[in-house]
Structures are given as C-alpha cells and as structure tokens.
Design a protein that fits this description.
The complex is a heterodimer of chains A (about 425) and B (about 400).
Chain A (H helix, E strand, L loop, with lengths): L5 H6 L3 H18 L1 H4 L2 E4 L7 H6 L2 E4 L1 H10 L3 H10 L8 H11 L15 E5 L5 H12 L4 E4 L11 H23 L5 H23 L14 H9 L6 H19 L5 E2 L2 E2 L5 E6 L7 H10 L2 E6 L19 H11 L6 H14 L4 E7 L3 H4 L2 H12 L3 E6 L9 H20 L4
Parallel strand pairs in A: 1-2, 1-3, 3-4, 7-8, 7-9, 9-10
Antiparallel strand pairs in A: 5-6
Chain B lengths: L1 H17 L4 H10 L3 E4 L6 H6 L3 E4 L23 H10 L8 E5 L3 H13 L4 E5 L7 H21 L7 H27 L6 H9 L6 H17 L9 E6 L8 H9 L2 E5 L19 H12 L15 H9 L4 E7 L3 H16 L4 E6 L7 H19 L1
Parallel strand pairs in B: 1-2, 1-3, 3-4, 5-6, 5-7, 7-8
The chains are: A alpha/beta (about 425), B alpha/beta (about 400).
The complex binds iron/sulfur cluster (2 copies).
Chain lengths: ~425, ~400
C-alpha cells in the first residue's frame, strides 16, 4: 500500500489521524482492485451522500471532490486544471470540476497512484450547489453508465418543509433505490439500512463530542485543519460502517485523554503549546498549500475552535442524527441539512453562535474563488456576524485546488494584521 | 412615417428598459393599488402572480447605466456583475416600489442573494423559488405545485387576492397570447433578420419585464406590424448565427449592436427567456395550476440552469441551429457565470460533432469596450461567409 499523502502523513502524530488516512488509503486500494474482485462502484458527492444506502448494496463510493482535494494536496491539481482549461473549460469555474476532468483525461489515476475504476452508476445525489449538476453532466459524457439523480431542495426560508422532505423521500424510493438495485443486481434490504443508520448515529454522537471539545480553553483540537481529518471517514466511504463506529470511538477516547492532560491540538510542527487566539473559520481550506496555511495559524498560536467546512457533509451539532426508525426520512433530512444547503441568514446565525459558544476572539472567512455556493454572500456574512457578536472578522481569499490563487505572502500579511488587531482590542479592554 | 413608428416603439421600449427606478411600475401601483413583485432571471410562473392581481416585474441587472458604489462591497471580484447592480438598486431605493422579490433556482449566486435580500430588507417578501430538477409529475411536479401554493398563500397574506381557477385561466390565456406573438417575432427574425434587428427585438422583449402582459402583447404586435411594413430594411450579406449563454446577466445593448454591425445576423438567442421558457401554449382546460406545473415539466426549453436528462447536452442548441438555418454559434456568456460556462464545453462538443463553426467570448453587463469582440465577431462572420461560398 502506498502512503496517501506523505507531506501530511509526516506531520501528523495522532493515532486517529493516521488511522483515518489508512482507512481512506485502504478504500482507494479496494477501488483500484475493483475490476479484478468484481466489486462495483458508484460515483457520488460528499454533501448529500447516501453512503448507508450505497454500501447496503455492497457498492463502493467514489467521491470526485475527495479525489480533487487529494490531487491538490499531492501537487497534481495544477496540471489537471491546465489540461481541462486547454480542452475548453473556463478559467472562471469551480476548480474541483476541472481537476477531476483533468485527472480523468490523464488516465484517472487516483490518490494512491492506481487507476480508479469507471463508475457502474453516476449517483447524482447532491445538495447545496448547482455546479454538481453540471459536473455529472460532464462526467456522463466521459463514461458509458446510467445516471440517477436526486434533487434536494434548498432551505431558502431557513427550514425543512414537509413538502421538501416528501419530495426527497419519494425520489429515494422511486428513483434512487431502484437505480442502486439495478446497478448492484441486489434487492433493497431495509433492515440492513436500519442497522447502518444506527451505526451512523453512534459515530455522529462521538464526532459531535469531539468537535464540541473545542469549547474547552485551551482547546484539545483544531476544528478546521485538524477537523478535516476528523470528518474524513464519516464524509467519505464509511458512514454507517462498523469501521466508522470504531474510528470515532477511538478518536473520542484520544481527545478525552488530551483534554485530561490539558494538551493543545497537534499542528504540523507538533503539539501547540500555548493557545493565543481562538477563531471560528467559515469556508473551505486551501488544499494546495494546506500545511503552509495551517502553519500560518499555528505560528501565531491561533486555534480554530469551530468551522463551517466540517459541516458540508452533514451538520450534526444541531442535534440531527440518522434515525433507524425513520430511515428514508432521516436520509432526506440529512441531505436537506448539509451546510451549504442552509440559507444565508441561517449560516449567519450558526457562525455567530459558534463565535459565542466557543468563546472565540473572532472569526475568519477563507473565501475560495471556485465556490459560489460558499462564497457569494460571504462579505455580507462578515458584516452581519461582526454586528451580532461584536467580535472582529477577517477576510482572506484563496482557492481550493488551483495553486495560482494561493498567495502565501498576501494571506500571511492579512492573518498577521488580523491577529494584531485582536491583540490591540484585548489591550484596549475590548474583550 | 412607418420607419418613425418603429423607432417610436423601440424608443419607448428602450426608455422602459433603462428606467431603473421603475416609474412605470410606480404608476401602475398608483393606478391600481395592486402589489408588484419582482423576480430575478430566468423563469417564474408569472401567470400565478397575475391571477392574484399582482404585477410581475422582471429584474435583469442594471446594464451599463448605473455606477456601482455599494454593490461591489457585497461581492468578491470573481463573482458576476448582476447581483452587484441588483443590490445597488435595492439599496439606492430604485426597487422600493416592489413589495417583494422571487429568486428562482438557477445558480448559487441568485440562491444566496435570496438570503441576503431577506437580511437587507426584512420587511419585504423575499422567496427562493425552487424549481424542480426532477421532471416526473408525481415527484418534481408535486413538489413544484406545493411551491406555487406556498407562494400564492404568502402573497395573499400580504394583500394579494387568492388565485381562483378562473383568474388562473384568464392569466394563462393572456400569457399564451404573449408567447404566441413572441414566437412569431422569433420566426420572423429568423426568416428576415434584416427586418427585425436583434437589438430592437431585445428592447421590445425586455419592456415586457415591467409592462402588464396585455400592454406588452400590444407593443409587440405594433412592433411586428411596423417592422414588417418598413420597406427600407433590405437584406445584407451577413452570417446567420445563434447566440447562446446570455440568459441571466445581459450583454450591454452596445454589444448587440456591435455584433450586428460586425456582420452577424442573430437568428436565435436566449435573451429574456422568461418569455419563451414554456415553448407552446399552456392548456387552459382542466386544473390550471396543474397545467402550469406540467408545462414547466414537459414543455420547458433546455437551459444550462436545469438538469439535462437528455443524452446530449447541447442537442437542443444544435436543433435550433438547424431549424433557424444558422451557420454558426456565438457562445456569449457573462464572466464568472457558472451555469453558462460549465455548460459550454458540452455545448461546444455538440456543435463541433456536426461541424458547426463557433466562437466564444465573455462580457459583463457594464462592459464599455467592444473593439476586441467586434474584431472577433467580424472575423467569425467573414470566415463563415468564406466557407459558405467555397
Ligand atoms: S462550487 Fe463549491 S460546492 Fe460546488 S462543487 Fe465546486 S467546491 Fe463543491
Ligand atoms: S450571471 Fe450566471 S452566475 Fe451570475 S447570477 Fe446569473 S446565472 Fe448566476
């Protein structure tokens, strides 16, 4: 087995983090062998994923966003994007899409360096972004396989209505499940789904406990840079699987121990000795300079105590859990509730609540050029959260996987001035 | 005499399009006491609003006419222009005659703007209209009907009348008439593009965003008669092209004139699509709300803003090129427009498979310089003519 991403593996020491990387690497290896072993696979997305259903048919999920972010971390995305742009894709659109198309056109080599299998089904279950629709229309032209589409309505008025729930449930029953039956050659097994959903809820309890451990001062975790590792298993291929239950149980035990010992989070340079700033972050990270970006925070003694990015594949800290007693309904509510499917006022409320509940000094927005779903409206979010919390907001711009849009010196300057501003506020008795 | 009649009509329409403070809407409200509800591109079921005694008012940005002072502070440089000018108009009071806004589901920018509007103007109605991406009557149809019923209830609670089957049928008839005359103008322009310059067609269509539907139908009919009667308009040796990608943020009028002057006859386009979103008549018999729903599911045009469950994205574009006997395609999209630009590679592949010539460029609603586009379009038109003569 090849290591997934040596840059990152080298700097992480927590057992849980290494373990999650191994889980994901094993999954990629299994995908690479799928044609020999006869296992079938489904391409699908992280937000609004139906992992319990997919795996209930013994199908393996492939997540194009995860491939793209891994390609970004491994320094491959620049070439993939260049290839897609050369072949007619606009410089203006989401770089995940271009990275994915470029990877496909370059032989579809996955993060482990092995070829990914072609999909047996394109499962367009998406939420919170229109680009997903176009992305799979583009992929449909690359592959000869069926497509099943699940339209998840947007929570425009900040709530899930009965009509939305029924629409999603009916599509699951009438469209998605039959498509999965067809692709797998297996019949839908409701009991198996219920068992998976019960395991999902168990893992979700532990994940929420871990994320909320950052309410402690000092925080034992970094809920953004570290957080992306914590969400790995549950956002990718493992929600509802026994492996996810074990992983989150172990992760929780590990963080409990860190908490007891008063330890701070593990950063690229080892454990953070002293927590100087507590911030909330809105927006996805940059993947091409992930470690450098993280270090800019760690060098300042800044810990991210809550983040919205770790909610794109599911918001669990508001109490939502997958529910074995309401299997399709709770899958629908899961899809409807993912972070980028929330209205702007709901996002403002959520960030403001994080700033207060996690006793943050302020909040930062990392605005990525790729993603209008996140970014359109963030300047207003900035103003509104500042107004509601009285804490300072900072704004930086980068991209997900296009290294052309990560200007290290610019971002560093901005972060430094931002943290200085917090210091000055403190000195002036602002907080 | 007749020529001046065309120009009078076009001038009137252009004045309506450029009146960002919506005086005609203010006058209508003063006259009728009714509600005016705005909507963003691309499609809303205007029939429902009219059946409730409401004036639907389409917003498509401010073009090049408005200096953006506050709107830019709401958007990063890599987001299209339309939402900036919409915010600007909201904040400078231009839109205060509107009792609410509908934000149809077409892209993440418009979607998020709905939430911004809710925060900026908490007393106004601001609703995200979720259009179904599933076109099955029992699934997407049922959901969409619920959406329409919710909107009708919300607006009735704000003073509009509740729609009745009769009022819905009447509104459907009015819009069927409007769609028919719009269709006839498109046919006419495709047959004799020298008689119906696209920039003129554009302004008379766009006037329909602010006029009551009957007035708009009358304007279109008058324009059609006047343009047909104008014997001074003679054919020129121009390339016949379909222009695509401009369904939301609109190109400045100067850009359309530039394309025509550069030697292109635009014989089909996707401007002001709300007028043509439903291809044919909405049936009047039976349950009118159901008819509106089913027309959206079964009879809407293909668009980058809707999921395509067809095998070939771009198939409908090819079909339009063939039907209009066009010789090429101009992909003309707003900068940073996700739906248009993500769709484009697939549409380009579809036209390339048929050997149809194409070229592409981007614009912003406030672009002021067209020299480069003029040269590009001119070269494109020349090359088409050369090929067709070869
Ligand atoms: S636009 Fe944003 S949410 Fe959509 S696919 Fe790209 S990164 Fe994901
Ligand atoms: S121009 Fe394109 S990206 Fe901008 S609001 Fe319109 S559809 Fe959305």
């Amino acid at each position: 087995m090849k290591p997934l991403d040596t840059t990152v593996v080298d700097v992480l020491k927590d057992g849980s983090q290494i373990r999650q990387k191994q889980m994901i690497a094993d999954h990629y290896a299994r995908l690479a062998r799928a044609r020999e072993t006869g296992e079938k696979c489904v391409y699908t997305y992280v937000p609004g994923n139906l992992t319990e259903l997919i795996r209930g048919f013994d199908l393996l999920p492939v997540l194009p966003e995860i491939n793209a972010l891994q390609s970004g971390m491994r320094g491959k995305s620049r070439d993939y994007i260049a290839r897609a742009e050369k072949e007619g894709h606009s410089e203006d659109v989401c770089t995940y899409v271009k990275c994915d198309i470029g990877m496909k056109r370059s032989g579809n080599i996955g993060p482990t360096g092995e070829r990914l299998p072609d999909p047996d089904l394109l499962l367009l279950s998406y939420t919170g972004c229109f680009t997903f629709l176009k992305w799979f229309e583009l992929l449909r032209e690359e592959y000869d396989c069926p497509v099943a589409m699940l339209h998840v309505p947007y929570q425009g008025d900040g709530k899930i209505t009965d009509s939305m729930r029924r629409y999603v449930v009916d599509q699951l029953r009438d469209k998605i499940i039959p498509a999965l039956e067809e692709a797998s050659g297996k019949a839908f097994d409701l009991d198996r789904l219920r068992e998976s959903l019960a395991r999902s809820a168990q893992a979700e309890d532990d994940l929420v406990w871990v994320l909320q451990s950052a309410k402690n001062v000092p925080s034992p975790i970094d809920a953004y840079f570290g957080g992306v590792y914590y969400i790995g298993p549950i956002f990718t291929a493992f929600r509802g699987m026994p492996e996810a239950v074990d992983y989150y149980r172990e992760l929780r035990a590990e963080i409990e121990q860190r908490l007891e010992r008063g330890q701070g989070p593990v950063t690229p340079d080892g454990e953070l000795e002293s927590e100087r700033f507590r911030v909330v972050v809105e927006g996805p990270p940059n993947w091409t300079s992930f470690r450098q970006f993280w270090k800019m925070f760690a060098d300042e003694g800044a810990v991210v105590v809550a983040s919205t990015y770790t909610k794109v594949g599911g918001v669990y800290d508001n109490g939502f859990r997958h529910d074995p007693d309401r299997p399709l309904e709770s899958l629908a509510e899961y899809c409807l509730g993912c972070y980028t499917n929330l209205s702007l006022p709901t996002r403002v409320e959520m960030i403001s609540r994080y700033v207060q509940d996690y006793r943050a000094d302020g909040f930062l927005i990392n605005s990525v050029k790729s993603c209008n779903s996140f970014s359109a409206g963030q300047l207003m979010i900035l103003r509104e959260v500042e107004k509601r919390t009285g804490r300072p907001g900072g704004f930086i711009e980068s991209d997900l996987v296009d290294p052309r849009y990560f200007s290290a010196s610019n971002i560093k300057n901005r972060l430094e001035s931002y943290f200085q501003m917090i210091e000055q506020k403190r000195a002036g008795g602002g907080q | 005499m007749i020529a001046s009649s065309v120009s009078t009509l076009v001038e009137r329409a252009e004045a309506l399009c450029r009146d960002l403070r919506l005086q005609s809407v203010r006058d209508w409200k003063a006259r009728t006491g009714g509600l005016a509800i705005g909507y963003l591109p691309v499609y809303v079921p205007r029939e429902l609003l009219v059946a409730q005694g409401i004036l639907p008012v389409g917003l498509m940005g401010a073009g090049a006419d408005l200096e953006i002072i506050r709107g830019d502070a709401y958007y990063q440089s890599y987001i299209c222009h339309l939402p900036r000018s919409t915010i600007e108009m909201g904040l400078d009071g231009s839109l205060d005659c509107l009792d609410g806004l509908l934000f149809p589901a077409i892209c993440d920018v418009i979607r998020n703007l709905s939430g911004m509007w809710q925060m900026l103007f908490p007393d106004k109605y601001a609703h995200y209209l979720d259009l179904p991406q599933n076109f099955d009557r029992e699934l997407g149809g049922r959901f969409y009907r619920d959406e329409l019923e919710t909107i009708a209830r919300d607006l009735a609670a704000r003073g509009a009348s509740a729609p009745t089957p009769e009022s819905l049928r009447e509104a459907i008839v009015l819009y069927n008439e409007n769609r028919a005359v719009v269709r006839s103008l498109y046919e006419l322009r495709a047959a004799e593009p020298w008689k119906i310059p696209t920039w003129e067609l554009y302004v008379v269509l766009r006037a329909g965003l602010v006029l009551p539907v009957t007035e708009h139908t009358t304007l279109l009919e008058a324009y059609r008669e006047a343009a047909l009667a104008d014997t001074t308009r003679l054919p020129m040796d121009q390339a016949r092209v379909v222009l695509t990608g401009s369904f939301c943020e609109q190109p400045p009028l100067g850009l359309l004139k530039t394309l025509e002057r550069a030697g292109c006859y635009i014989v089909d386009d996707d401007f002001i699509q709300v007028l043509r979103w439903i291809r044919s008549d909405v049936p009047v018999e039976g349950d009118p709300l159901e008819n509106l729903v089913n027309s959206l599911l079964d009879d809407a045009i293909a668009s980058p803003t809707r999921y395509s469950d067809q095998d070939e994205v771009g198939g409908e574009l090819v079909e339009r090129v063939q039907r209009r006997q066009a010789e090429g395609v101009l992909f003309c999209a707003p900068s940073f427009c996700d739906p248009a630009l993500l769709d484009q590679p697939m549409a380009v592949a579809a036209v390339e498979r048929r050997g149809i010539p194409w070229t592409s460029f981007k614009y912003s609603e406030n672009s002021g310089q067209f020299q480069v586009i003029r040269e590009q379009a001119g070269t494109f038109a020349d090359s088409i003519k050369l090929w067709s003569e070869a």
